[in-house]
Amino acid sequence: MTPALDVLPACRYPLPRYDLFVANLASVVARVAALLPDAPRVPLAGVELLSPVANPGKIVAAPVNYQKHFDEVRTDPQLHPDHAAPLRTVHTAGLFLKATSSLVGPGEGIAVRKLERRTDHEVELAFVIGREARNVPSAEALRYVAGYCIGLDITIRGSEERSFRKSPDSYSVLGPCLVTADEIPDPDHLDLSLAVNGQIRQQSNTKFMILSVAALVELASSFYTLYPGDILFSGTPEGVSPIAPGDRVVATVEQIGTMEIDVRAAEAATPHALSGMAGGS
Known about the structure:
Layout: H1 20-23, H2 25-35, E1 59-61, H3 67-75, H4 90-93, E2 96-98, E3 103-104, E4 110-112, E5 119-120, E6 123-129, E7 145-153, E8 155-156, H5 162-165, E9 172-180, E10 191-196, E11 199-205, H6 213-223, E12 231-233, E13 248-253, E14 257-265
């Protein structure tokens, strides 16, 4: 892949607000094909898999996009602590944004913060926008998708806004690769599952999503301009449950593959040393 990046155009400030690799994906793929016969091989086990998308302009996510997940959230006070507030599906809640700084690949792992609180896994089909999209009707939406990945939307439970609780570093895991859209003609009929330490926790199919991939593109592009490299997390099925440091998470999506992610505790905050300060009170 690295030698194929010589086809990417040079950029100067102000830098584009999109991911340069995804915006030029067709050219990169063609260059890869030309280089492949003589390219050196590196064992997959010997590399650390980073996020397939390095510089997304934004990460957009769908809340409560499976009916059975809606049902479990409605009945579990740990998943929905504020019972005074009505629980809404994606139809009425809309979408939310996650910080791009939360994005990692499976090889980087999940660093759990706020160990005194519950942190949950959520396996999802994630997809990457391939070209600028604005007010796209669902009938045309899949033409704007560059490819698909497995996504993990990691969540601290609590009363704060979703975007806040889902945006710590490493709380958006994307991988293990970007499967180009031509290889997945129907993203709305894919099995997906997640296991923790060998125990299956989540198992469903994207056909049970309330809003399809195309409908999510239509909704998102009616509010935001979507740019190449923007990532959309499509929502998680039922079976959401806690993870803790020391766990190993294995997530699988049909036609994409499997990724393994280790869970650890985030490094504790340390006070910055003060220097060059005059004494006194």
